[in-house]
């Protein structure tokens, strides 16, 4: 199978490229290597997976989602698309919502239209648990729940992407799996992500900034588990579906800080800061649908995942 991975130079994307190559698929990566964080890191991700701009089984098309020429070049001969390209982050979306709309919404529209023109009808779309908004109960986050009360522009763009995918399914038969990722972490994650920042600070002996009183709860998913979920969705197209990919075993923020200290074998200090707009108090994935539809369940718990990430950081930085 020949698969286009948009955003394939990024965190989840580069791991997915490696997994696709390992099982013998041909891969095209479409990425603009933007400067949200160091583009050199993204190039390192690609090199690690054998991707280059030269023709071959793993090729980079350097370009933007909104560039029609780059899109059509990347889609040539492709059987399926995994759409990971997006500008991410709840807090940054509050500062620059127009950028989020342009890339995440208009970029998705451009991709869907280019797929229609190319006759490519299989898509896995990377959505987010943020579409569920803020919950005031302890219930699991189920795909059947309402998702029409986003609390950040980022969340709104991801929900818009799901709706656009459904429209493409309804009008011209695109087969889509929208995967709602629950806070993916692990090697190569973006430096701005909480676990990445916390580990870096802990290893440097600096305090960890905790927004709020530490009672917020997050469902963290190891990147290897997320990639397995993407592959399962890619191999099981069946109309249109929305599926949670999470660990299903959330952890409090203060407990996460302590777990990072244990994984890094360092004493952790914390600094409590005011809660931030756009943050939600808790996420907790109901993963029964992923188990039933994809035959998927997470394999890496938060303790094992944190140890693997700390080991990777130490190896990368020579610590």
Walk me through this protein's architecture:
The structure is a single chain. The radius of gyration is 19 Å and the shape is globular. The model has no long low-confidence stretch (mean pLDDT 95). With 319 residues, it is α/β, with parallel strands linked by helices. Strand 2 (26-31), helix 2 and strand 3 form a beta-alpha-beta unit. Helix 3 crosses helix 5 and helix 5 (97-118) runs parallel beside helix 6 (153-172). The longest helix has 22 residues, at 97-118. The strands form four sheets. A seven-stranded parallel sheet has the order 3-2-1-4-5-6-11, sandwiched between helices. Strands 7-10 form a two-stranded parallel sheet. The chain contains eleven helices and 13 strands. Helix content is 43%, strand content 18%.
Give start-end ranges of low-pLDDT stretches. Answer: none
- Average pLDDT number: 95
The 3D shape can be described as globular
How are the strands of the largest sheet arranged?
3-2-1-4-5-6-11
Overall strand count: 13
Summarize the structure.
The chain is of the alpha/beta class.
Labels describing this entry:
single chain; 319 residues; seven-stranded parallel β-sheet; two-stranded parallel ribbon; 18% strand
What's the structural blueprint in terms of helices and strands?
Layout lengths: L1 E5 L4 H12 L3 E6 L7 H10 L9 E5 L5 H8 L4 E4 L6 H6 L1 H22 L3 E7 L24 H20 L2 E7 L2 E2 L8 H10 L4 E4 L5 E2 L2 E2 H13 L4 E6 L5 E2 H12 L5 E4 L14 H7 L7 H16 L2
